[in-house]
Amino acid sequence: MFNKILWGKIIKDFAESPLPKDIKQRDLDIPDKIPLKRSISLIGPRRCGKTYKMFLIIEKLLKKGIEVNQLLYINFESIELVGVKLEDMGDFLSVYYSIYPKNFQRELWIFLDEIQSLSGWEIFVRSLIDKGFHVYLSGSSSKLLSKEIATQMRGRNLTYEIFPLNFREYLSFHSVQLESYYSTKKEALIKNYIEKYLNWGGYPEISLYEQAKEKILNEILNVTIQKDVIERFHIRNEKILSLLVKALVNSKQFSVRKFYNFIKSSGLSVSKNTLYSYLKHLTDTMTIYLLHKYSNSYKEEERSRPKIYFIDNGILKISGIEDKGRLLENCVFVELLRRFKIEQIRYFLVGGKEVDFVILQGKKIQQLIQVSYNIDNFQTKEREFKALSQASKVLENDNLLLITWDNEGEEVFEGKKIFIVPLWKWLLKITHKMIEGESSKLALYNSE
Length: 448
Fold this sequence. Notes:
The chain is an alpha/beta fold. 43% of the residues lie in helices and 17% in strands.
């Protein structure tokens, strides 16, 4: 049984010092309460800022005049809570009400950080909702998105995904203010930061302490694999898992069958089913994503060889990826994840040519996006244009966008108008017309 005195200490410590200093603002707007008997879940990979987003909501509530004793915060990965069980949570509430007996009749908020560490957490959350609490959850595992959890919560949850910093937030962390017009000096400053962002990604800690970026990124990756995969899923064959991660890092597309054959030829023993389960566990961490080919057939989509993306370019960088084209495409994919759901994003193959991203709105294709670091070479430019043009004809969509490092303009190729935009402007949602002082055109850049 968990010690009631320790519960009291946790409750009182938070009341005396609820917030860390110098909290950085993030773009995502999460309500501080909803008129529904539902919890709100903040999910995402480790160290992307879920905890600080909770602190931002707490800060907002305090500024509105909510008293600190109406707020509760628990981090289930705290060393103080090692071994805490579901049955201990009743004592937590009894201790809280013994300290603040008047709060039986008051509006209350509870923030449960890294909730997946508590076995049977959904039972506790449902009981809190039934008692009238405003409940906020965080978790590093995409299990919070699964149908199993949705069923256990009986549809009583709203989910918000938290990602590493987008480029706007990244600039804000470096005290760069966005404006309607940019001087040559300011534009050069932004381009300097986009180079860093492309190479080292947007984990908040990296932006705050660049000197230790490699150490921090290695620690994030190692802890993710160790805690969220090996320990959580009781992985016994760590060598195979390590080889799988390396293969994913070095693969633009991935075939379990080919990897299985490689493992066999290396004299190692593992089943295909085990490899599929390892791959699923890795994607559950929300660190690795599989992107399937667009098709009118669901079965064909699922059977297609997926393209591999990582949640942050820094993970690729510390894993030895230097290819600017790969980093650029990965950066675009992560931004698309922020703007759309993964179910709305596909890639497409036509005539042996690949279009990097197909954006869907329901069953309707909204936009085709190609990514190329540089199109100064004529053959490269023709290849990228032809892929977009052919896909446009087959998929009957003329909303064509090419994202590059620094090329910009509009061109017509085979009767198709293609908009070309530099990465930094696309990330900041800057259009041609905005630069010229008009903001009414080219929502194409926004992909929204």
